[in-house]
Amino acid sequence: MEKIKLGLAAGLIGLASSTANAITLNIDYSFDSNNFFSNQVRRDIFEAAAGFYETRLGDNLLAIDSAGSNQFNAIFDRPDTGAEHTINGFDVAADTLTIFTGGRNLSGSTLGFGGPGGYSLSFTSTSFFDNSVSRGQGDGTRASVEGAGAFDFATWGGVISFDTGSNWYFDSDVGTDESFSGFDFYSVALHEIGHLLGFGIADSWNNQIVAGAFTGGESVASFGGPVALNGGLDHWAEGTASGGRETNFDPTIGNGVRKHLTDLDLAALSDIGWQVNAAPVPVPGAVWLFGSALLGLMGISRGRLASA
Ligand SMILES: [Ca+2]
Ligand SMILES: [Ca+2]
Ligand SMILES: [Zn+2]
């Protein structure tokens, strides 16, 4: 009986974490003139990758609300052409990032790239400026999210482009990992969204690099020491593993390989300022009503929490 009580307690903690705040990644396909996403399966996979981050990141982000003399302008390279584009009077809702995505023919062996967008502002309200640039992260000022002292990244969103000429594998069910040939679009989508969230790019990332290694506290704790980076200092070193698996945020992916985010990948997002929620307990709340049927499920919940 004692074991049952322990299981219940742990399970309740798990349920509480599954109701934590979550961010929304708003996917915008309006700059996809090459019709990379005309196939619904591709949209479904990309949105599943976004959904992973939506369940795991819990930051409270202030809205950007351009009005009157306070105007935020989003500046980015179009995903379909690479040409610089500006949207004046840009708005984004609280707890939400906008991702402009599309495809074009990328050079060489590049499968995709992604990153946060730029901006300009005209304003009369300093709180509009601070709130738009920091989105309420850090101490709510630009200095928390950009520059030499930045520690808590924020953005309005950004751009992700995928190569139209690569031999992709489009998985109609990303919930199952099977054998396949081709480059796994789901894994690459996870990787590029990570860059959009600042991995390898944010000042809060750059500020924690010492002698070619990333020294963020969560990452060091997960890895067992500073984590060596690639030459560009924007990925883990080639082949870096976590929990016995190659990380998603190293620089390459092989043909026929699926790479979920590892604990180290998520630790880096935490280190650059994201609030990483525990993995949701894979049991619907209604199951809790079914008395003795709970016992086996409790053990599963405890194991996941202990290893999280
Ligand atoms: Ca599958
Ligand atoms: Ca944050
Ligand atoms: Zn990358």
From TrEMBL:
What is the enzyme's main class? hydrolase
The protein's superkingdom reads Bacteria
Query: What keywords appear on the UniProt entry?
Result: Hydrolase, Metal-binding, Metalloprotease, Protease, Signal, Zinc
Q: Which GO terms describe its molecular function?
A: metallopeptidase activity
InterPro entries, per this entry?
Answer: MetalloPept_cat_dom_sf, Pept_M10_metallopeptidase
For this protein, the Enzyme Commission number is 3.4.24.-
| Signal sequence interval, chain numbering | 1-22
**What region holds the Peptidase M10 metallopeptidase domain?**
151-200
What's the protein name?
Answer: Matrixin family metalloprotease
